[in-house]
Amino acid sequence: MRQLPLGILLLPTPILFFISMFTSPALAQTWSEGSPMPTARSEITAANIGDDIYVIGGFDGSGDVSDVVEVYNIKNNSWKSTGPLPEPLHHTAATSYEGKIYVIGGYISREWIPTNQLFIYDPIKNKWKEGKPMPTPRGALSALFVNGTLYATGGQDEARNLNINEAYDPISNTWSSKTPMPTGRHHSATTTVDNKIFVIGGRTAGTSIVNVNVNEMYDTETEKWTAIESMPSKRSGIAVTAINNSLFVFGGEDLTRTFGNNEKYDTDNGKWTSLESMPTPRHGLAAVSVDNKIFVIGGGPEPGLSVSDVNEIYTIK
Questions:
Q1: Does the pLDDT at position 271 exceed 90?
Q2: CATH number at residue 65
Q3: pLDDT tens digits, one per residue of 106-115
Q4: Percent of the chain with pLDDT over 90
Q5: Is 49 part of any domain?
């Protein structure tokens, strides 16, 4: 009979299986592949309405600025095209509110000219309309809705890293200035938990890549910013989304590589955890969460201009 090292007990297979159901971390979180995006793109933005994820703009494989809007239905694992952007955009920001998609800012050409345009898409009518322009033209910004107000944070104009925080009221169609971010940056990522806005990572220097791991929280009720535990890695060109009280930050780039990093921030205990990396490292990607799944779509697998049609799904059980 094979002699086991001291302290190791050989258990019957059914018992080992029963124990592994409750102890194996591999069972808790998994990656899988979804149907590829029809048009390979990077420097995209995305937002969802229910089970439909709208992937908007970016660069295509030829390096041209895209007006393409493609919709992924998570139930059917299928894609369709819908009404294109009124103008091709890259490094823009998108969010959804009350059944409509809001697209804010970005760059309108390969010459990286920043815009302040606000486009609003009605999927029922399949039509775009213009909202009141944002006060400050900028690209590589972030945007989201909290309690019926759209907050557009950070970004870059033609020369500066911006700490601007501007808010849009869709009812009055007006913009107002809010408390600026402590750290001006672009290519960061933003999500919300409990009416608080988390702005994570990004860059702080011109067109070169000087990454930061700054994590700052904005309380929309007190209008105050707080610096909280920094992200473990310095990354820009990232994507973030939230499930329950946790933030999940994916991808990014520096001058020599793209990142497959998947790092989670728990807003309850203020701690970061490194999780299983994305199968395909990339930057300029989008991440959208629906229920217990995160859909990580598109982005460039190489630093700089590169594209992919990847649709990888991170499931939290």
A1: yes
A2: 2.120.10.80
A3: 999 888 999 9
A4: 85
A5: yes
Half-sphere CA count of 132, side-chain side, radius 13 A: 13
Instruction: Report the DSSP pairing between strands 189-193 and 174-177.
Output: unpaired
- The answer to whether residues 252 and 274 touch, using CB atoms and an 8 Å cutoff, is no
φ, ψ of residue 54 to 5 degrees: the values are -95, 120
Q: Is residue 15 part of a domain?
A: no
Distances (CA, A) of 98 to 92, 121, 175, 189: 20, 11, 19, 22
Q: What is the pTM of this model?
A: 0.90
Average pLDDT, the chain: 91
Name residue 261's amino acid: N
Tens digit of each residue's pLDDT (9 = 90 or more) over 235-261: 999 999 999 999 999 999 999 999 999
Domain membership of residue 217 (yes or no) is yes
Q: Is 13 helix (H, G, I), strand (E, B) or coil?
A: helix
Question: CA distances (Å), 87 to each of 56, 156, 173, in order?
Answer: 11, 19, 21
Give the number of other Cβ atoms within 10 Å of residue 12's Cβ: 8
List the beta strands (DSSP E) in 60-141: 69-73, 78-81, 93-97, 100-104, 118-122, 127-130
Residues 233, 261 contacting (CB under 8 angstroms): yes
Using CA atoms, how far apart are residues 161 and 264, in angstroms rounded to an integer? 26
Distance (Å, whole) CA 44 – CA 270: 29
130-183 residue pLDDT tens: 999 999 999 999 999 999 999 999 999 987 888 999 999 999 999 999 999 999
Distance CA 266, CA 198 (A): 12
Beta bridge partners of 312: 33, 296
48: helix, strand or coil: strand
Tell me which residue range forms the domain holding 294. 29-316
Q: CA–CA separation, 99 vs 97, rounded Å?
A: 6
Q: What is the C-alpha separation between 170 and 89, in angstroms, rounded?
A: 22
Residue 71 near residue 82 (C-beta atoms within 8 A): yes
DSSP code for 25: G
- What domain count does the chain have? 1
